[in-house]
Specification:
The structure holds 2 protein chains of 2 kinds. Chain A is α+β, with helices and mostly antiparallel strands. Chain A has helices at about 5-10, 25-35, 40-50, 55-65, 85, 90-100, 145-150, and strands at about 75-80, 105-110, 115-120, 130-135, 135-140. In chain A, about 45% of the residues lie in helices and about 15% in strands. In chain A, strands 2-3-1-4-5 form a 5-stranded mixed β-sheet, with helices on one face. In chain A, helix 3 packs across helix 4. The radius of gyration of chain A is 18 Å and the shape is elongated. In chain B, about 55% of the residues are buried. By secondary structure, chain B is of the alpha/beta class. In chain B, helix 3 (about 40-50) packs across helix 6 (about 100-115) and helix 6 (about 100-115) packs across helix 9. In chain B, the strands form 4 sheets. In chain B, strands 8-7-13-10-11 form a 5-stranded mixed β-sheet. A 4-stranded parallel β-sheet of chain B has the order 3-2-1-4, with helices on both faces. Chain B folds into 3 domains: about 20-230, NADH-ubiquinone oxidoreductase 51kDa subunit (Rossmann fold), CATH 3.40.50; about 235-320, Ubiquitin-like (UB roll); about 325-415, NADH-ubiquinone oxidoreductase 51kDa subunit, iron-sulphur binding domain (de novo design (two linked rop proteins), Up-down Bundle). Chain B has helices spanning about 20-25, 30-35, 40-50, 60-65, 90-100, 100-115, 130-145, 175-180, 210-220, 225-230, 260-270, 295, 305-310, 325-340, 345-365, 370-385, 390-415; strands at about 75-80, 115-125, 160-165, 205-210, 230, 235, 240-245, 250-255, 260, 280, 290, 300, 315-320. Classes of the chains: A alpha+beta, B alpha/beta. Chains A and B meet through helix 2, helix 4 and helix 5 of A and strand 2, strand 3, strand 7, strand 13 and helix 14 of B.
Chain lengths: ~150, ~425
């Protein structure tokens, strides 16, 4: 993570001086975006840089569902299964996804192409059902639209 | 649109979220006006406006702000809660995507009122476009001199940081949110002390919902008296309602408080999907109690009216549910969610959510026993008031709300090992 420190230094100017631990969430996310996951060496590096206990960063990593300690598939397909999406056929969509991708939710395909997850409300209920692929929301999804979308993800 | 508009009062275009367009709409004039006012006069104006919090608890904003003591020789913090995660709610997203500068200007005014040098926006980690829009607006605002030192040539200085969450429902609770900003697990904290006394890093901190804050600029521009003319006496102003579910025109609507609820559902939102009939609504996020079609008949959309009917305005996340929808399956989805999102800090919630989830799974799996209904009631009651944050209570309210009104569906499911209805959550198709 050392190469990211100049970037963190720039951010620091807008944080209240003396409260560096407020940067933990942003730094962890940046590290994960850079490497794809957070490695042991990142934890050591960040703990040293921000002057927070290593355990605090470990806690954050295990608490938040979006943070991960190991790599996942190139395309992270996250289907919402909360109330409104379920009322708009999300359950059928998820069954279809699992068949199509070939793994149950929570798993990665052996070729590392897809990771399939189910998630709770993504705040896209007006355009349900929603499937998030990497960072992008795909709204008003149907089986046909999804099939077309997955074809394009290599 | 249902009634007058204070926030969604401009046409959305490809550039309407930019600084140039915001300035053309009269943006940052309220900040100019506010910086010429004494900080306590801004709080007085907001208190006089009667503005209530729009995040779910409808707490009077002026009362929250008044707790912060000015000139007490310690830093104060402001945090906008953009961790919109209550199922059914997507209204703050509209502000973040389409009016990010309205939020920033309002936060600057609030920072001046509360002597805040460092402000934060805590935005949920999944929001990508809203984050990019907001982050771009922050850069535009810095560039134009609205943040940093000597803002608009005055002694006022303020910095802002957008912190991204990482997938935790509990971080939408104000103290859990501050734990997360501090770079920790998002564990809520016991009160007292109130966050306005000891909040972020043990300093006085105001946490307000995005929509709540977005109203501040307007209140300064038009004055408290004019603001109070919109809405009804006990609920002044408007509410961004995000409506979804079995409804023909889902989306975000700005509803003036006091607007007839039925008219909103059937005229503004086009009625029930597929020509169906309304069974019930969840008025403001799944943690608020359901209201049946008969119950909503005489209601207007405001705090007093919904509370008199035994529910709440909540987060403005309304879900319309059509006749034929299986309430047992609906509660199953809700309890799975609560179980998944319990942070695990308090035993009644950590264990109770799991118990409730397993009981409802058992019922849906055809293995329910008649005592299960009473068990759900008992666990809901055990959670009420025994946890640090309101999540345990909320799950109980939601459960009791559904059980009270649709008990027959649960009894039928347990006895016959199948749904009394189709067992589906999708809207039934009507010929």
């Amino acid at each position: 993570m050392k190469h990211l420190i100049p970037e963190f230094e720039k951010w620091k100017k807008r944080f209240p001086p003396g409260f560096d631990s407020a940067m933990v969430m942003l730094c962890v996310r940046r590290i994960q975006d850079d490497r794809g996951f957070v490695a042991d060496s990142d934890i050591d590096g960040l703990a040293g840089y921000l002057g927070v206990p290593r355990m605090q960063i470990e806690e954050v990593l295990s608490y938040y569902t979006q943070f991960r300690r190991r790599p996942i598939g190139r395309w992270h397909v996250q289907a919402c299964r909360n109330v409104t999406c379920s009322m708009r056929s999300a359950e059928k969509l998820i069954d279809h996804l699992a068949r199509k991708i070939g793994v149950a939710p929570g798993n990665t395909t052996p070729d590392g192409r897809f990771t399939l997850s189910t998630v709770e409300c993504l705040g896209s209920c007006g355009t349900a059902p929603v499937v998030m692929i990497n960072d992008t929301y795909h709204e008003n999804m149907s089986i046909e639209k999804l099939d077309e979308l997955l074809e394009g993800l290599k | 649109m249902p009634g007058r508009q204070l926030i969604m009062n401009f046409p959305v275009t490809a550039t309407s979220h930019t600084l140039a367009d915001y300035l053309a709409r009269g943006g940052y004039q309220a900040l100019k006006k506010a910086l010429a006012m004494a900080p306590q006069d801004i709080t007085k104006e907001v208190t006089a406006s009667g503005l209530l919090g729009h995040g779910g608890a409808a707490f009077p904003v002026g009362r929250k702000w008044s707790v912060v003591k000015l000139n007490d020789n310690q830093p104060h913090f402001l945090c906008a809660n953009a961790d919109e995660g209550e199922p059914g709610t997507f209204k703050d997203r509209w502000i973040l995507e389409h009016a990010p500068h309205l939020l920033l200007e309002s936060m600057l005014i609030t920072s001046h009122a509360l002597q805040v040098r460092n402000a934060f926006v805590y935005i949920r980690g999944e929001f990508d476009l809203p984050y990019r829009r907001l982050a771009a607006a922050v850069e535009e605002a810095y560039e134009a001199g609205y943040f940093g030192e000597r803002i608009l040539g005055t002694d006022f200085a303020c910095d802002i940081v957008v912190v991204r969450g990482a997938g935790s429902y509990v971080c939408g609770e104000a103290s859990g949110l501050l734990s997360s900003v501090e770079g920790k697990r998002g564990y809520p904290r016991n009160r007292p002390p109130r966050l306005t006394v000891k909040g972020l890093f043990q300093r006085p901190t105001v946490v307000n919902n995005v929509e709540t804050l977005a109203n501040v600029a307007g209140i300064i521009t038009m004055g408290a008296e004019a603001f109070k003319q919109v809405g009804v006496a006990k609920s002044p102003g408007t509410q961004l309602v995000s409506i979804s579910g079995h409804i023909n025109r889902p989306g975000v609507y700005e509803v003036e408080y006091g607007y007839p609820l039925k008219k909103f559902l059937f005229d503004d939102c086009g009625g029930i999907l597929g020509g169906g009939k309304l069974k019930c609504i969840i008025p403001g996020g799944i943690s608020t109690k359901v209201l049946t079609a008969e119950e909503i008949e005489p209601l207007t959309y405001d705090k007093a009216s919904l509370e008199a009917a035994g529910s709440q305005l909540g987060s403005g996340g309304m879900i319309a549910i059509a006749e034929g929808t299986c309430m047992v399956r609906l509660l199953q989805v809700m309890l799975r969610f609560y179980h998944h999102e319990s942070c695990g800090q308090c035993t009644p919630c950590r264990e109770g959510m799991g118990w409730m989830h397993r009981i409802i799974d058992r019922i849906v799996g055809g293995k329910g026993v008649p005592e299960d209904i009473e068990r759900l009631y008992t666990i809901s009651k055990l959670n009420d008031g025994t946890t640090i944050c309101g999540m345990g209570d909320a799950a109980g309210y939601a459960t009791v709300g559904i059980l009270n009104k649709y008990r027959d569906e649960f009894e039928y499911f347990i006895e016959h090992k199948r749904s009394k209805l189709s067992g589906n959550l999708e809207a039934p198709v009507h010929a």
